[in-house]
Amino acid sequence: MREKRWRPRLSTEFKAALRRHAGDIVAAVLLYGAVSLAVGRVFRFVFDDEVYSLDVAGTLPLGRIVALYSTGRDVHPPLAYIVTWLLHALGLGEAGMRLVALALTALALSLFLVLTLMLLARRGAVTPFARAAAVLLFGLNALAISQGDALRWYPLFAAEVAVAVTLYVAAANDAARLAAAAMVGVAASTNFLAAFVVAPLAIYRYGLERRFAWRVDAALWLTVLVFGGLGVAAAVSVLAGHPQLVGRQLGTSMATAVGLDVLGFFGGHALGLGQAWIVLPAILVSLAAAFGVVDRKQRADPAHLFLIMLIAVAPLPLFGFGKPRSFLYLAPMLAAVQVLYLDRLAQRRVAAALIAMALLVAPAVAAIANIQGTTHPFKREAVVPYDELVAAIDANAEGRVLVVSSDPALAWILTHQRARPERCVSYFFGNPVCFADTGGYGTIVIVGGHQARAANVTVGHRTGRIAALVAGRRKVATVPVGHDADAALKSRLTGTPLTAALLTLDIYR
């Protein structure tokens, strides 16, 4: 019986790698999942951007979410919000949705791990050292552990890119490459960073593989456009009607953006400025790996595609793009390059390969240890001790309580997870219900801190309304919560005044 030509097929060597190294793949995924749960992923409090995603999914109808980009409210294509809306509609809570995100990130890691093992097998027998390095570098991928369960677009985008690259690199027929093009289009409907996937694929296909077949190529790019329709519509709408949204994504100074992206990417979005030195050896080894995996005899080596994708985003920080967690999709590619380099190094100098692997694993372990809590946070919002914060509010409450917060995550937690009938919560002054009769509150709590819109001190520094709100009341306590040992250094480097306390509670009665 003839096999249908339109059915995507993967190469026998990819299937062989999947079959022969199933144990290694399972080990890496279990390591990734176990460590993620151990450091508090999935079952945790929300962070600021997640509040926005949950609010969109919980309050807007699907039709408005599909066209969200046309309102000037959001710069992103809508597919990730649509997925979150669907998960919410299915009845999944925050933890359930995070498990889905974690599974998507695990899929991305797994696919690139199989591709790495496939490329290692092309060199000959896959050594125990290479297998161990692969399990460790994929399973202990700090950026994937810290951001892999996020209720944002990056886990979905990482999975889409991984599927697209796998279908293309391991394709056994044009139908598989057509499926890869469809997935690239889906990625474009998720985030505009898909442009940095499309361009490297084109460079790889035409510059390195030297594939030129106009009928196939026309079908490939038409497929990208069709499945990327939401992304194309979003791009046209944003550029034509709301170009200021693009500026907001590039609003960081070049020096700050470079520092943020490099430290955030290699430090797993967890190591702070005071710990930046930890990632320097890993950066040097990774640069050596980038040069070390280049094969001048095999121009079409898929490792070159990984390198092109990594290099393609290098100019972004120069334009002020300082969002390292957006590069989650690149974390498995870097791990693949690192493993391929370590294997080649081990063939010449085993001791050097062991040292290089230790230099790569050490900062990953340090970053993982910092994810749940640290006095040197990469992002202050990520390590706020919300349990302590809620306990302090409850301990100082007398009668009805008004909480005015500069932190969106705290407002969400107090409203959805720790709600109390005697407590009214407002993110800044956004909840008018709370201010209808302020004289009836026995306690007013003002929460200020890291948010730039709160002037990084208290809500009172943002607006004079706070003075009228607490007029005639007595401040009975100021409670600092959390600590950032790098606050002074960050203030000097950014020009934004930061307090050592992550958040501060001013309590009035």
Could you characterize what this model shows?
The chain is mainly α and 509 residues long. The chain has 2 domains: 12-370, no CATH class; 384-508. The chain is 57% helix and 6% strand. The protein contains 23 helices and 5 strands. It has helices at residues 12-20, 22-38, 48-59, 62-66, 79-89, 94-123, 128-139, 142-147, 153-169, 174-188, 195-208, 214-227, 229-241, 244-249, 254-266, 280-292, 302-312, 331-348, 350-370, 386-395, 408-417, 465-469, 487-494, and strands at 401-405, 423-427, 443-449, 475-481, 503-508. The protein has a 5-stranded mixed beta sheet with strand order 2-1-3-5-4, with helices on one face. Helix 21 (408-417) links the parallel strand 1 (401-405) and strand 2 (423-427). Helix 1 packs across helix 6 (94-123) and helix 9 packs antiparallel against helix 10. The chain is globular, with a radius of gyration of 25 Å.
